[in-house]
Amino acid sequence: MQHIAEQKSYIKMEKITKSFGGFLALDNVNFDLRRGEIHALLGENGAGKSSLMNVLAGHYAPDSGQVILAGNAVDITGPSEARALGVGMVHQHYKLVKTFSALDNIALTVPHGAYLPGVRNLRSKVVTKMKEIGFELDLDRPVGQLSVAEQQRVEILKVLVGGASIIILDEPTAVLTDEESTGFFQTIEKLSDAGTSVVLVTHKLREAVRYSDRITVMRGGRIVDTVLPGDITDDQLIKLIVGEVITEMPELSESMGDEKLSLQKLNLASVTGVMALKDITFNIRAGEIYGIAGVGGNGQAELAMLLMGLIEPDSGTINLAGHGDITRLCTGQRRRCGLVFIPADRQRYALAGELSVAENYAVSGILRHEYGGWLKVNRRLVRRLAAAAIEDFDVQGVRHLNQNAAILSGGNAQKLVIAREFSSLPSVVIAHSPSRGLDLRASAAVHEQLRRARDTGAAVLLISEDLDEVMLLSDTIGVINRGEIVAEFSSPADRQKIGKAMVH
Amino acid sequence: MSVAKTLVGRRRANLEIREPMGLLAKSLVLLVSVLIGLAVSVCILIASGVSASDLWNEFIVYIVTSPKNLSAVLVQSVPLMIAGLAAAVAFRARFWNIGIEGQMIFGAIAATYIAINDLGPEPMRLVLMFMAAAIGGIGWILLPAILKIKLNINEIISTLLMNYIAFNFLLHLLYGSWRDPLSGFPNSQQYDALEVFPLLGWQSLNFSMVISLFLVLFVLWLFIFSRFGFVLKVLHGNSEMARSLGIRIGLVVLLVTALSGALSGICGFVISAGIESRMTQSFFVGFGFSGILIAFLARDNPIGILIVSVLFATLVIGGQSLQVFYQIPFAMVQLIQAIIVMCVAGSEFFIRYRIAILR
Known about the structure:
heterodimer, A: alpha/beta, Rossmann fold, six-stranded mixed β-sheet, B: mainly alpha, three-stranded antiparallel β-sheet
């Protein structure tokens, strides 16, 4: 095979400009993709990566610019036209009908003629494709019952069986475990060897450098540079992405106090969709960050909900210094004891999209009765304190305090959640994957806030599937595996040993 | 953020999601859609044989120029307004109260019980009836509310079925022990003079108007200013978030449904004590669904409910004269309501999207 670097481009996007109500998302962008290459597209949240790919996939119509496929200018007027041209996109949030089987989901987007014979044909096509790329998948189970990695396979099959020669993957590994990611990239490499062009939109430098043939970096709606992964160091790449070098160094706690939060033999029985917890026992001291490392789905979500009082344990106790046994307290009472919660799924558990930014900020304070009596919520105070917090926590993209929180980007939404949760001095912080989906700069800001909470004497529980994050922040690391804390390490810990405990 | 595209000639029309609209712009879109709905309705009425000038007279001239008709409209708007509030309050907690009519029946039954048995001191009689009506309405929504909160049983089904139970219990009373002893008709006996609302001194307008305006202000305060209203807004916005912030969702839903039931009960009471002076077997018919439509058209806004219920009352009163003088069936009024509702529902599209023409 001819080396990819010497090939001519297969698809070219020229001078693409796209604006949303005065905001320039793409500014005269040129992008090209060669046959059979894996092309990583890097950039911070809001750099324009997704917008550019949405133009290619026919979801957005550009204000100006053109797309050239194999030498001919093409007019991509919609997703189905894009599909006909061989462009398929796997979105970060899967577009699947949860109650349909995998096969029916594929049938929805792939034309197959009359339903019954068509689907029979389609099944054999899908099965052949699965064998080709080494996928395993139950085609007849409702998609809602499949794991996230399996759902992603359905999305990829949708695109491949539809005959795509160009696949766009938007943050494909954001929700996958390390192991699943490795398997995923093996598939992608097979596809590219077979001549499929792949665009990999990602935040993860390591993946881009390891698996891609070329890397294009975007910033502020423009292309910064296109480089070969062998020609550049990580630091240089980070500098291209954020415009400066951000490297976080571990900073261990300087003053740890007495035990603040102590969990004693917490047990939770397994029911459908809930991981059982077995004899969870650990202590967090004041001024300590206790990290829980583990492969996703090993009881992390259940542990977080248990601590916030959203589910009840079958046995065991939770003790909070100064408040005694809090095992039977409801969520509201626990929050009044100073527990705060940064959930993994912030859109679902921490923000109300149709409420304003100011209201999303002030809600916990209003529940603490800090904004006037029951007769009247002091709206002026809400606006004043929200404005101050947005300034303090550097929440960007807020043009007006009354705008809906739904339009904040991931990083800024998370900063808003943290601003609210830290609006009173917390005694215990429970943070679950606090930097999931955030770019480097936003992650660093989130980490800084967690350290600051620690330094004011809070007990911080950091539950994260990202081992780098756990190792960077934690003073003590516990490893959760199948609902049990199987090992505990003091920082600095040996990455190999932690990894072994995670998958043992 | 375009969603779909079509080719129009050589230009391309592109559908894009708008920035969230301001209140003024939203109200304007709503107004235009109501006007379009009215225009369509006028066309249908003209097609069915009523001339445009007759329509103008019946719906505008006779109502604005005749104090008698105007007061009839206002009296008619009172129960509509309260039913609209009852629906809006429940909807704010995402509790779909389809059982407003059943709760109206039990509100009226409770009030009538006080009236028939002459309970309590005479000057306090109406106050007692008011309170009894509220409690009756609460009683009839309590079971579906608890089923919903404790067992997650769908309230649309349970409140709807409770309507039929209430209706048959009402018939049982009116054909049984509560039948009017004087006329023998299946009504309750007529309320005494001190059991009906005093007139306000202008036409047929009575004290129930004051009650409904007070309730509008109360709900306005509740929704916009009170802390409880804020909690309700958070619950409406994202119940999972509300739960993880420590809001006791079950309690909030219970309180809100109780208020909705109380309002429905009061709605039944203002009809029996304000319009019919007795309890009939059909006083509640249509108010449940009208209330839901009014709350929907007004986007759960109490001031909007005030305006829309007067509009609905105009339709009802104008529709009655169409029925009498032009032999137009009353179903036509319901058709007009439905057309307006559909136009407003359709206008949601233009609030969310805009059409951009690309070169």
